[in-house]
Amino acid sequence: RGRVAHFDSELLAEAETSDVVRARHEMERRLRHAIETGGLALHYQPVVALPGGQVTGVEALARWDDAELGVVPPDRFIPLAEQTGLIVDLGRWVLQTACREAAGWPAGPTGVAATVAVNVSAVQLAQRDFLDDVVRALADSGLAPERLCLEITETAAITDLGATAARLTQVRDLGVRLALDDFGAGHSALSLLRALPLDLVKIDRSFVERVASDTADAVLVRLVVEAAHSLGRRVLAEGVESDEQARQLIAMGCDAAQGWLFGKPEPASPALTERLSRRAVSGPRPGPGAARCC
Ligand code: C2E
Ligand code: MG
Ligand code: MG
Ligand code: MG
After folding, report:
1. Cα-to-centroid distance, 119 and ligand 4 (Å)
2. Ligand 1 within 6 A of 121 CB?
3. Can you tell me the distance from the alpha carbon of 210 to that of 283, in angstroms, rounded to the nearest whole number?
4. Average pLDDT, stretch 152-177?
5. ipTM
6. Going by CA atoms, what residue is nearest to atom 27 of ligand 1?
7. Which of 82, 119, 249 to mutate to test the pocket of ligand 1 (most atoms within 8 A of CB)?
8. Distance of alpha carbon 172 from alpha carbon 221, whole angstroms
9. What's the confidence (pLDDT) of residue 294?
10. In 67-190, which ranges are continuous DSSP H helix?
């Protein structure tokens, strides 16, 4: 009223952009600080064998509860860490910590100690000294290599399949197991199952979600299981939430599962250690070339 105000959408967009950029920088700064000062934690989610549902291991999942930002989900801070290069230090910390904690889980009455799966980003895998990091994490912790499983996603393989396969073969020669994570989430090619030295294929939650209701997805899961098995890979279903899904997945021949039906991610604790040692399932020890499950 009685005034003229100029609205400049470009200026507004600029101001908004700089807000976003500032917030991102602030988050990056705080994440770096968290990595350096022990501000991250690991939670562990059980991996179970099908059809029995016995715990065979866990997957380590990074958690960040920041004093100012609150809980930041991995789907936000992992991509940020990948874009800024912080993933190298973050990933090294995860690897070291998961190996150290898992080394403290006794074999218990079953005689076979639980495995621990660690997510490895494509950026990390491409580092020249990645293999050294794995060797060091095993040596420092004393964890048997067979108890460590590294999970990679197809993005790593797609950028440079030859280099990725060579790198993974070096890791597997240490005795460490390998899993392809989130299979089916992107442009997953079945040829990857053959090109990479994998022990395990993890079928993405988006398929598992619809396995009991969508026949097209059920057909795809069945095909992946068949292809993986015929190549000597085992198959795990991610994000299993209902009995009905578990029943379907068992009927399809899935070897293992993870999901809220069996257990949510939880911090390391004496109770978790106790459960892992009691319920770690014993199986035939894999011979050379035999299919191994993470
Ligand atoms: P992911 O490796 O595929 O891990 C599985 C994700 O599914 C986890 O999410 C887990 O909490 C969630 N989940 C498990 N069961 C269920 C279920 O029954 N229902 C539903 N709705 N969700 C379930 P989270 O912990 O939020 O992690 C998300 C992603 O962040 C991970 O997906 C992984 O790609 C990445 N991530 C987490 N920790 C690390 C890490 O240490 N390093 C790297 N490079 N990536 C990580
Ligand atoms: Mg994973
Ligand atoms: Mg996954
Ligand atoms: Mg994922």
Report:
1. 9
2. yes
3. 31
4. 91
5. 0.98
6. 74
7. 119
8. 26
9. 57
10. 74-84, 87-103, 122-125, 130-141, 154-159, 161-173
